[in-house]
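New here. Invent one.

***
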Amino acid sequence: MIFLVFGVLFAVPYATMESIKVAESYWTLKANELVVDEDIAKYGSKFLVPLVCGEAFEGQDITWRREGGDELQQKGNRILVMVEERQGGNYSCYSREGSYLNHTLVLVRWPYRKIIKGTPEKGYIYCSAKSYSGSFQCSWTWDEKRAGKVVLIKVTRSNQEGIITCRMTSNGQGVTCQDQAYCPYAEEWDNINFTVYFQSNYVIETYHLQFQISDIVRPDMVHIKKNTTTLELQYPETWSTPFSYFPLTFQVKEIRCRKKNCDCSKHRPRKVHLTQGREWPLKEGVTVCVRAQDDLCNSSWSEWSRFRCMKNKKKNRRRGRQKEE
């Protein structure tokens, strides 16, 4: 479980030290983690970040050390450390006797998207819900060139009422969330705000989505049951009930395909049928492709289900013998 907390924004006035400006704004991501909000698109950019060992150590003889480096020249409870481009660091402070007192991890929020795959047009994070139960999933794909990890997730409703809990998937490429106060039979007025922070080395990337359950709902695959002369189109077991209150529309197309596993998405017949009916005629030699969508909103279609109606080989052999006679 990742605890849902959010940092507080701080602002400091511009100052100069050896012609290098102090970071304009920075904020706390988590305890002992400071994120610098700075546009460092240009290579060679440098800025200063203020660090404080602790209010209780004011006026004491404090020394500082960067993880993996030598002791810093700066002394005292409050110092300025220089960050160049994306090179943050973990800075620890010590007493005069050399005892560890505190530390601050300095991270830089990178303005580009590099840690996970995607594009601004297609998006980076995909969220979906299988029904109107208040449960939803969000997923992403890591970029192979980056060693990324999730450091913080924040999920709230716009009105700040209720609690939304989330847990990471085992592969680290998504979360499953539950809106504890969600009511499937009431009108959904407020948006869900979903924010996730990814870290790679000393770089932080922030991704934000805003949606309602009705925007992301996508039914599971339709079940197709064979009867004597018809096919029965069955609602997914995960779909909300009663079905009369949560109706689905079925999209049906009939294709002829010699392959055993036809790809319904690649075949485009002359006619595609839309129906709320649950019965479809059975035809020999025809593959029936079916997918479903919430009838009351223009949400995503489910994945295709298919049923191949095989020809009656025994009947064909009988016809062949009749021709020979």
User: Anything to note?
Assistant: Residues 129-198+206-216 form a domain with the Immunoglobulin-like fold (CATH 2.60.40.10). The longest strand covers residues 100-109. The chain has two helices and 25 strands. Residues 1-17, 315-325 have pLDDT under 50 and may be disordered.
